[in-house]
Each structure stands twice: as structure tokens, then as C-alpha cells.
Amino acid sequence: MTAPPDTRAERFVRELAELKIPDPATARATLWLRLGGLLMAAGLVLGALAFPLAHATDNSLAQGDALAIGLGGVTAAVVGGALFLRYSLTGFLRFWLARQSYDLDRLGDMLTPAAPAPAPQGEPRHAVTPHPGPAPR
After folding, report:
1. Are 67 and 54 in contact (CB under 8 A)?
2. How far apart are CA 73 and CA 41, in angstroms?
3. Can you give the pLDDT at residue 21?
4. How far apart are CA 53 and CA 55, in angstroms?
5. Which residues lie closer than 8 Å to 90 by C-beta, 6 or more apart?
6. Distance, CA of 38 to CA of 4 (rounded, Å)
7. Which pLDDT score, from 0 to 100, does residue 86 have?
8. pLDDT tens digit string along 25-73?
């Protein structure tokens, strides 16, 4: 008995498993994604709180503290945005790369010519007769 040939989809899944690409739904990536979102939200809240604090007083020391809180909020928002962007794009780009690989494999299969049929027995393979040599003078 011969086993049925693998379909392209089965071969693709097997090749992806051989690449050992980590699953995008792992806990660590989800943790960093949530941490990035939390830092963005915390940065926005700190920035929104620092503005009224800085304008509510004439004391320069209190205004300096409010400005430091505001700059910390901006920093947290930028770092959180970078983390969120990095880990949200990772899953998408991993899928895109796998899909591109699959599409290129299918294109290669379509562009590769089929193997030529073997020549019948007793005939020259390319229908070329051997040359007898130089012509006499």
C-alpha cells in the first residue's frame, strides 16, 4: 500500500513546524503587549494630571514637580507605544512572512515545468544523429 501524497497545506504546516517559529499566542508576548498598553494609558493619565497641577499654582517648586510628572508620563507613553507596536506587529508580520513563503512555493510549483516523458526505447533521446566526422576534400 502506498500512502496518499501530502497536500500543499499539509506540507506547509509540516515545514512551519520544522522552522520552530514560536507561537504568537505565548504568555510572554501577551504580557509585553499588555504592559505596553498599560504604559501608554498611564502616560496619558500622568500627562493629563500634570497639566492642571503645573497651572494651578504660582510656586515654582510645585510647577517643577508637575513638569517632572508630565515628562515621566510622556516617557511612559512613548515606551509603552513602542512596546505595544512591536508586539502587536510581530504576530501580523510572522503570519505575513509565512503566507508569503507559501505563495512563493505555490508560484514555484506553477512555474516549474513538468518532467519530460522518457524517450521510447530504441530511438535517440533528442532525435540527433551523430555526425560522421569532417567532410572529405
Report:
1. yes
2. 9
3. 65
4. 6
5. 24, 29
6. 51
7. 92
8. 567 888 889 999 999 999 999 999 999 988 888 999 989 999 999 999 9
Handedness of CA 17, 18, 24, 27 (dihedral sign): positive
Helix, strand and coil content of the chain, in percent to the nearest 5, comes to 70, 0, 30
Amino acid occupying residue 48: A
Quote the DSSP letter at residue 112: S
Q: Give me 44's grid cell.
A: 496619558
Kindly state the DSSP code that residue 122 receives in the 8-state scheme. T
The grid coordinates of residue 26 equal 505565548
Q: Which residue has the cell 501524497?
A: 5
Lookup: cell for 19 = 522552522
Global pTM reads 0.56
- From the list 90, 113, 93, the residue with the least C-alpha distance to 101 is 93
- DSSP state letters, 20-48: TPPPTT-HHHHHHHHHHHHHHHHHHHHHH
DSSP state of 137: -
